[in-house]
Amino acid sequence: MCKIVNSPSLGILCLESGLPLDAMPLTPLPGSMMNPATFDFPVILETVSGAWVENVVCGDPTLESAYIAAARRLVERGAVAISSDCGFSIRHQPAVAASVNVPVAMSSLLLLPALLRQLPPPAKLAVLTYDSTHCGEDLLGVDDLAERARIVIGGIEGGKYWRDGMKRPLPPTDVVAVQTDVDACVARLRAAHPEIGAILFECTAFPLTAPSIRRITKLPIYDITSLCRLIIASIA
């Protein structure tokens, strides 16, 4: 039987890992969605049945009912807001938001329109993603062509962390690999687009690297944890 959580809690929709949630090793550094030290409020987790990294990233529409069912279980357990541990879950944002009576923010990509308006017109917003080949315009929520031109996208596809994510079961998060892949991606994007004024992490593992990327770039860094903190602060 699921334990009912009484304190205001963030519900996180988790992808399949091949392990029970209570048996998954914690990521060793705060910043991960799966590490309780990341937030100053409790989180509760539910696995989305059948949602593995590869089919969520590619956009499998048959997962929608599983996302809805897991979201409803989170609300039953006491979640006052819902997010997910993969930014590509934004494809299921409308369906999940319509199925529960709490705020839903499935991806940091929801921040894109607001972040563009914070920047001066010449500045660009960099989106760092797990896989840029599947991060198309349909996920960005920006219809204006002039605003869309201010978004530059870079991914870590082909890197070690990307390859690890395609394995079943998932191995423990390789923090060094995440840092190495993100550092390289940021360097490539800034070399190609020196007018970048802020960075948005799509991938929920990338917040691990946020402190170092802020120090290196001197730029604002936004991610899913930024959005989750905003939502919980507005409720509790």
Summarize this structure as a short list of keywords or feature phrases.
236 residues, Rossmann fold, 2 domains, four-stranded parallel beta sheet, three-stranded parallel beta sheet
CATH secondary-structure class of the largest domain: Alpha Beta
Q: In percent, how helical is the residue content?
A: 25-40%
* Oligomer category: single chain
Query: Could you state the order of secondary-structure elements as H and E?
Result: EEHHEHHEHEHHEHEH
Number of separate domains: 2
The tally of helices reads 9
Total strand segments: 7
Backbone shape? globular
- Mean of pLDDT: 93
Given helix and strand content, the structural type is alpha/beta
Q: What is the CATH T-level topology of the largest domain? A: Rossmann fold
Going by CATH, the architecture of the largest domain would be 3-Layer(aba) Sandwich
The portion of residues forming beta strands comes to: 15-25%
Q: pLDDT under 50 segments (min length 5)?
A: 1-5
Note the gap between the termini. Answer: 27 Å
Rounded to an integer in angstroms, the radius of gyration calculated over CA atoms is: 17 Å
* Spatial strand arrangement across the major sheet: 5-4-6-7
Largest sheet data: 4 strands, parallel
Task: Describe the overall structure.
It is a single chain. This protein has 236 residues and is of the alpha/beta class. The chain folds into two domains: 9-107 and 228-235, Rossmann fold, CATH 3.40.50.1860; 108-223, Rossmann fold (3-Layer(aba) Sandwich). The protein contains nine helices and seven strands. The chain has helices at 53-58, 64-76, 93-99, 112-118, 145-148, 160-165, 175-192, 210-217, 224-235, and strands spanning 9-14, 43-47, 79-84, 124-129, 151-155, 196-201, 221-222. A four-stranded parallel sheet has the order 5-4-6-7, sandwiched between helices. It has a three-stranded parallel sheet with strand order 2-1-3, sandwiched between helices. Helix 5 (145-148) links the parallel strand 4 (124-129) and strand 5 (151-155).
